[in-house]
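COURSE: Structural Biology Practicum
ASSIGNMENT: Worksheet 4, Part C
STUDENT ID: 0417
INSTRUCTIONS: Below are two proteins. For each, the amino acid sequence is given first, followed by its structure token string. Answer the questions at the end about the second protein only.

PROTEIN I
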Amino acid sequence: MTTRRLLAATAVAASLAAPVAVPALAHEGHAHGGEEPKPVVTTAAPTLEASSSDFELVAVARGKTLLVHLDRFATNEPVNGATIEVSADGEAATASPVSGEEGVYRLEPAWLSKPGSHDVTVSITAADAADLLIGTLEIPAGAAEAQTGGAQGVSAVLGQVRNDSGLMLGAVMVFLLGVLTTVALTQRGRTRTVAGAALVGIGLLLASGAAFAHGGEDHSHGDEDKGKAPAAAVPIGATGASESPRRLPDGSLYVPKPSQRLLAVRTVVAKPQEAAQTVQLIGQVIADPNGGGHVQATQSGRIEPGDKGLPYVGQRVEAGQILAYIAPAVTFVDRSGIQQQIAVVEQELVIAESRLQRLRKLEGSVPQRDIEEAEANLNGLRKRRAALSPALTTKEALRAPISGVVTANNIKAGQVVEGRDQVLFEIVDPARLMIEAVAFDPRVANSVRGATATTADGLTLTLGHLGHSLALRQQAIPLLFRIDNPPQGLSVGQPVRIVAQIQGKASGIVLPRQSVVRNASGQPIVWQHDTPQRFVARPVRTQPVDGNTVLVLAGVEPEARIVTDGAGLLNQIR
């Protein structure tokens, strides 16, 4: 190979190796020798966190801008319309609110571009409170260089290569790989075969990772580095970086303030309280005996629609409204017998009318008693005929016994029904519903003071205890409750979960029901807002207070901030 061709091959190899070598050089976040693990500066934004009894503040440095997130300490609600003045290094600047963002303010102080530790004082003045927060913001040197866009990028990479033997070896091997690739493509014969074999060998060596460490491996050497955590063990959230929510190795959650706003996370400060002892019961919705009714036929017959047609399920009807008619079902034999009786009565009626007319003509000659008997006989015959005639033609009207909603319609037009126990219509007044539950402990049945019920879709009902039965039903005691102001949408037979208050008191911390969620093993937990951007799961032991609140008996310390709204969403973060 001539010198010119060799130089050309070397140039091509260098151009091929450069794109591959750069990622190999620019690997960060590894521990070399005895250095301590450090957060990845390129992905972590310097953060300041501070809080007081009124406010909670998170300030994040992004380039030349300092974003300040301000919330209420107790509730985690964003604070809008506040005046925030930030002082550091003898410079004071007032933050301005970010348009379209709740509780977010921004400013561009000059000291933000200076690397090092800055003692920051934040003065906050809101509509109902004022406070002074103090903290330290650490600006890494790498962040300052990135802001200035310095021309030291190439020299920094070269310095890193000189100080790291692994990077140096990797760069050399990548360069050789480029040279061999060029030789294999431009030569023939034995030279091409040898270059190809060497190319395959170096490629396998690089793929196995034996040439140089990459992807978060520890480059430390010697026994002095044993026991030190690798860089990957440092939670990115601990650096204050603006990252997505994640679960940290200790099981806690790192949730940046922007994510907290999206999840609408709200908290409450735990306060010890006393609440009534409660028990949980299973019940179902039933109709009030005075607010429900059945419509049945008193005779056999054929169904005919009423003036407005047959009512459908869900239709509201009024008391006394005609729902349907029943035309009497008379057999051929019965019809012949009735017609024969009518014919006999009509014949006797004609004879009685003739006899009465003759007696009236002889009035004064015959006793008055005979005339009166003839009149009475005639009237009796007329009534017998009137009673027999409707048996063939008169229809029975089926009327609604109460005002309410039709919940069952068991007939069709033309259907033949029997006058027995068949229920043709069921009507329920939705404003008069009750709940029936069962208790297996007689002491519970005798000590109920009040109760609430919760439906499967989360609807809460306030109940009044009416009493309990003296007769057992399958070894359980039926209890009856009245629903105060029944809402729309309840159905008879709908199951409910009842929380009944009984005698006695219990001490603990009262929290909204949605604060308590379950972890992967099914254990009840609450999420404690430990620091501005960190949440810790606390296993708890609870008892229900009513349909909306629970009493935490153990697991939560007083004054802890417990998540109320958004606890279920936090529980899904992995």
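PROTEIN II
(use this one for the questions)
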Amino acid sequence: MSPADPAHPAQPATAPGSRPTQLWGPPPWLWLTLGLFGTQVPLLVEWLVWATSWSGTQHGRSPALLTVVALTLVQLLPVVFLLAGALSVVPPQPRTWWVERRYQLEPPDHEPDGAPHVYDQMRRFLTDRAPGTELRVSVRRDLLARVYPGGWRTTRVGVFSPLVGLWQWDREAAEAVLLHEIGHLRYGEQHVAGLGSPFTGLVRAWPYVFAVFGLLPVALLFAAGNATAPLMSAQIVLVVLSVPKILLIVVSALWSAELTADRYAAGTAVRTAQQRALNALAQSPRDALARLYHPPVRMRLWFTARTEQPVAQLLLVLLWPAAVLTENLLDLFGAALAYRLLGDSPAGDATRRALSLAYEQLASGPTWWAMLAILAVWPLLAGLWPRLWGWRGQAVGTLSPTVYATSALLPVLILVLGLLPAVPKPGEPSQADTRAPDATAAPAAGGNTAGGTSLPTPCPSPSKPAAPGRPEGLPSFDAPRVPDSTASAAPADTPMRSFRTLRVTSVEPLSGSLTQAQDMADRLAHARWTLSPDGTLTAQDADLPELRTTAVHDGTRLLHGEHTRTTDVSTTTTWVDARLHAQQGPTARLDLIRAATGNTHAVVACREFDSTVTAAARLALQLEEQ
């Protein structure tokens, strides 16, 4: 009898242990998303260490510091969500307990009123198509069915009241709903999707998280008049853009998983049953946020009708990579705008800086390399991956190898662009200007041209970089600074005074990382200060220049200092503005604004490399006179 005989089910596309001739489906983008977020855990740990060291009464709290913490936290919370999701994979029992308590899911010990044998039929249906899958039921009416883990290799499907009604009046459509949930099992998505998923939890909580930790700090900045500062405005832009960036990556991964499960249901259910199931889903009550982590019903209907067409298969494989590309473009736009707010002029310089940053991300970032690696090895793993999660069914809805190979061209093209010569930063010569001279070319006397043809540019000579200028947008204290030669100096008979740092009451990074601001605060926390009769203030072992008094008013002394250090390849200038205010008793308050900018210029293999790095922080210290 021919293999097409309906009495004989189709054989799996791959035999155990053999290489598949066709792919079962797209790579498990959800798992890759979880892994990429996992690479950001060190950043999360660094922030937690910093937050712990600066919490409590020892260092105090200030609105500016809390604002910076909140703006940083809104960028790190996605890592927290998905790290919690990763921890729920092994072991999954805590998530199982929480899901069943939250959604009132119980074993089907009794049949629903007026619908005898429904739960028994559903249980047999699940056992026939996905052995080992357990049924749980709930009287809630806001869902149809959802999958969630019961153990590392066991799965539970939660069935809700509306599906019972659908089972009675359109059983084929109800079976298609269960087949959709079974479709998630082949990728182990019950551990990262379904009820209690960290991805759906992130999408649902993100609007509220951003309102509290993103919009509220921005409102406080505007109220305090600090939001218009260039350094803070640039950070606000990056935080606002983090919202679509996070949602793009997570939502696209969830949509890819849902469409893949739809494809499985369409290939195994009775013809048109999946479409009727989707229409029933469109009529069921759902909250607005659920529409984010599930594709629109119209899109799913369109996809279900074209599951075996090349355009639908390309959509499955390229949906997540396209979202990553969009995220890169948002990074490029945000960086260009932030550089403009920081004072880069003209606009072309900001664009070149942003392009240089994008180039470094493409060349050294892990996302596109990980994506290409997954696409390369997935043909070998496609038949083994489902068995890792206990899948014993047949391969349904395979992808065309030609379509799959075509989809791999996107990451290849992006990585090729990343391997091209870097975009020159502002002030850097282009690669054409820094090429090594041709050894066979004879130098021309008296010029750099011969016969109208340009000779190769000579190899540049090493030189010390110029001293950097004061960073634009750096805040200063209210009173104007006067030239040191006319500064109000202390009387000649004023005795020398000595202080020690009693505590650091606040620290606010203005540019650079939180770690850099913390390092400066740590050095100042143990500093000893000397105020000389001539009005100069010096600190021991604090990496600060000598501060000279520029003005004295009502017991408040304004000071300024700067120094420049030069090596063969770098020049670093440090600026410090300070305000020393005497308080009652033997204490004083010292406010500091410290900024350091380093210019580096090196010549390697006849190519010039230039870089500029700025770190700035605002600190408040309480001093005790000795």
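ANSWER KEY EXCERPT:
Q1: Confidence is low (pLDDT under 50) at residues 1-21, 54-64, 424-457, 480-492.
Q2: The first strand starts at residue 134 and ends at 137.
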